[in-house]
Design a protein that fits this description.
Layout (H helix, E strand, L loop, with lengths): L9 H13 L6 H15 L12 H6 L5 H4 L7 H22 L1 H30 L3 H4 L6 H13 L5 E4 L2 E4 H15 L5 H15 L3 H12 L6 H7 L29 H4 L4 H12 L2 H7 L11 H13 L1
Antiparallel strand pairs: 1-2
């Protein structure tokens, strides 16, 4: 299959600049591998975009379940890819350093699939409640739902901190909700349902049964599949997931839930908005910055209509 050729690929160049500024040695292997996979599938997609996006019609009605695997890993254009991957670099690096590579890969795999399932459930519910079939036809693609889930996990570790959303101070525990509303208001083309699905998946992990279920599944598979850092979290007879001190020989695998690291270790002292701004400032000159302001929003499950409009605009140029 041929690779994509889209203009100047400024988003790809910007992403490459960001990666090399961070340094390949400073990016953990799972984070780097997932980023590389997203870039590869953008350049050499597994299928055309309209065959990778996920919707109730395509996945449930027509039983094309492979879309749940493909949709998070494909992007509409290089700006869509850049903003998602720039955000993933920040979140992935810090979460992988904290949780260990094996658990982080496990977390990403579960979040990617479950976000798609929750998205389908929400769209199906909206279709039933409103009797509007357009909800079942809306097709979503992109990594931003997973990013919202990861953001909930990051904020869970630092509920006492404050994040500035559009200059407004918001408690970390509410930051994802604030961003959900603001992005939907300021960028109507993005999918409210897709981002909401990510938040709900994150909450299922931090406040619901998902963490326990994942821990039990990992225990059934084998502790040998986890790296030493991850196993250190799970070898415990208590509920915290840390090593027990009661001398017991048995252990129970628990999901990591460490809250000791200060907020700065996750965000580098920057808010979500400031992270993106810093990435852009470090990679663009003044002329390039004007180009960035015309770029698509940093998050986006993209609807079929938005994809169609972008294609029409591309042909009109």
């Amino acid at each position: 299959m041929r690779g994509r050729h889209r203009g100047s690929h400024m988003g790809l160049l910007l992403l490459a600049s960001q990666v090399f500024q961070l340094g390949l040695d400073n990016i953990p292997p799972v984070t780097l591998g997932v980023l590389a996979l997203n870039v590869y599938l953008y350049l050499f997609p597994a299928a055309p975009l309209m065959q990778t996006c996920v919707s109730v019609q395509q996945a449930y009605w027509l039983k094309d379940w492979r879309r749940l695997l493909l949709s998070p890993l494909h992007h509409v254009d290089d700006w869509h890819l850049y903003f998602n991957m720039a955000s993933f670099l920040w979140k992935g690096t810090r979460l992988e350093q904290r949780l260990g590579g094996a658990w982080f890969l496990y977390l990403l795999s579960v979040f990617s699939l479950l976000t798609g399932f929750v998205y389908l459930a929400l769209e199906a519910a909206l279709t039933e409640l409103t009797q509007d079939q357009s909800y079942s036809l809306t097709c979503a693609v992109g990594f931003s739902g997973v990013l919202f889930a990861l953001k909930v996990v990051c904020n869970h570790y630092h509920t006492g901190g404050v994040t500035h959303v559009m200059g407004i101070p918001v408690a970390n525990r509410y930051a994802s909700w604030a961003e959900l509303v603001i992005i939907h208001v300021t960028s109507p083309g993005t999918s409210f349902v897709g981002h909401l699905a990510g938040i709900l998946v994150g909450l299922l992990y931090t406040s619901g049964p998902l963490k326990t279920v994942m821990g039990k599944c990992a225990e059934l598979v084998s502790g040998n599949g986890l790296d030493s850092r991850s196993r250190g979290y799970y070898n415990s007879s208590g509920s915290s997931g840390r090593s027990g001190s009661d001398g017991s020989t048995g252990y129970r695998q628990q999901a990591p839930d460490d809250t000791s690291t200060p907020h700065g270790s996750y965000t580098g002292g920057l808010t979500e908005e400031e992270q993106l701004q810093a990435a852009i400032r470090n990679s663009l000159n003044e002329g390039g910055e004007s180009r960035q302001r015309r770029a698509p929003p940093p998050y986006g499950f993209n609807t079929a209509e938005e994809i169609r409009q972008r294609r029409l605009m591309r042909f009109d140029r």
